[in-house]
Amino acid sequence: MSQDEYRDMLPGHARFTLPEQPPAVRVNGRRPIPEVPRGSERRRDPDPVDVWDKRVAKGLAFLRRRLAGTYEVDDFGFDRELADSVFHPVLRVLYRDWFRTEVFGIENLPATGGGLVVGNHSGTLAMDALMLTVAVRDRHPRRRHLRLLGADLVFRVPVLSELARKSGATVACNPDAERLMSDGHLVGVFPEGFKGIGKRFADRYKLQRFGRGGFVSAALRTGTPIVPVAIVGAEEIYPILADIKPLARLLGIPYFPVTATFPWLGPLGLVPLPSKWLIQFCTPIPTAHLTEHADDPMVVYNLADQVRETIQATLLELLERRPDPFGL
Amino acid sequence: MVTSPPSVVVVTGVSRFLGARVAARLAADPRIERVVGLDPHDPPPALTGLLQDVKLIRADARAASGAIADLGAEAVVHLAVTSAPDPRHGGRPAMKEQNVIGTMQLLAAAQGSTRLRKLVVRSSTAAYGASFRDPAVFTEDTEPRAVPRGSFARDILDIEGYVRGFRRRRPEVTATVLRFAPFISSTAQTTLTRYFAQPVVPTVLGRDARLQFVHVDDALEILHRSVIEDHPGTFNVAGAGVLALSQAVRRAGRIAVPLPEGTLSTVAALARNAGVGAIGLDQIDLFVHGRVVDTTRLVREFGFTPRTTSEAFDDFITGHANGSSLTAARLAAAERAILDGIRRARAAGAESIGAGGERS
Q1: pTM for the whole thing?
Q2: Do A69 and B342 touch (CB under 8 A)?
């Protein structure tokens, strides 16, 4: 086989040749590269904007505010300053560089006022909730904060409960959800709960039961629009191969996951696999006209089902857009 | 319905800080003819000055039935509620005797008194109990999910139970239950103010409770108004806003030492037995769960907004400046010193680099 025959057999760009570069155009007799005039590094700028000095001053002022306690905490324990300057920067590394998250439909979130963001839950640890918070904070034009509703187990565990409250989460119960929404906050909820994050890898992207739809009645009572959100990518970060139920019961946790890396590699097993994430916010469902039906189980159930169907359909669409779970 | 202020008011618990102040305040009000203080103990010398215009009856609640009827009391202000066991006055058994049995007997006496029009009872936000499934903010309608561990909180639940019974039996009496957040001021002496006044403050590891306080002066104003005006019902009395425990410790310039909950309980119990500190299960429950209440109903009904939690706490800080180590002023000075140090070091470094560059 000759070289040319071989090349013809290759698919695609076998005959590809680089386009010829255009000849360099001289601008005023100089190449268009900013030339550094000689000796400029010695000459001091008359008004130097010293970046490092500003950073150091800012960091020290932050430390002083933290140590003196001169910051604000809201009724739910949300520490805005700590969230913005410590939690979000850390999570953003995962969000952007590790999971390469893409967000669609951010315009479906209300610009102001309350909103109930309802998502699918997956991924063994509730990483999807955290990434959703970062997505809302970073991509929303008003840089809003998403206030999560968490299981009471989260608030039972020391340290975790403190971190959850400071990052703006609160216990998933109707009084808290209604108070947050009527105060005009964006509230994030995952009605699948532990059934969602604890499901096995074989059941990925299959929405679990939505409980009693308490989230719907909370939204109805306050007339808050419901924004369904589909999150693709979290299923692959810790694929659960098996669930050791007796051990989970012994430890008092809802499930004991066995993944490809956990518990075999110990703490290394906690490193999430770098899957590609897509987050799609769907069209909001208005509820203001249904306020008097908040206690009607049929209305609540139907609305919960509508939200569930929307999320499931959007999940399948997103999966088609992402053929390779670990692609770029 | 606006009625005239009651002419004869009986105040219980006048040998204590709050009772004495309320009695003195009511006695100074010209609309009230007579204020009678009812207490099994004599007031300490520090409080006798306040109680000059108050007729004192040294009797416990058992003897109160006669007193309330004989005096023709139109209003009873029940403040003889102890928040912590006092080892000098019989410890926990005496505390329970006073809180629970005392309230029961006082309400029985009040029930039999025909002239009574008004009952004001001191309660506490501890009535909401402590559970991990609690909502973040309690309204007056929130039911406690779990019976709290603390003795004071359990007493409060009993007291409120008796008041509910009283309301059923005497519906025409205006019964006001005031659920106070922990009191604070520059001078008040409570378990919590003593706790925050220590130079080193033990806290619970991994928990940062949300706290609310009410300034004593605002509490007095609310108590005064509930005697003079008619405000039937249960009200949360607290300053708006929240301080995290760690934040409060930092604002007070104290140093927090986080201990695991179990260790803190043990240490607190040992310290209590040794007669040092007085942190009990009530406080540990508070430090684990935190407690925030909604005061919308109070503000609407009383037309009075207590100063915020952080303003009330600032007043405490000004009264307890000594003993603080990490004050805001010192931290600001340290910040300036470090920043100047870094600037000087960098300037020196830049100089030497500049000099090195010129030499080469």
Answers
A1: 0.86
A2: no
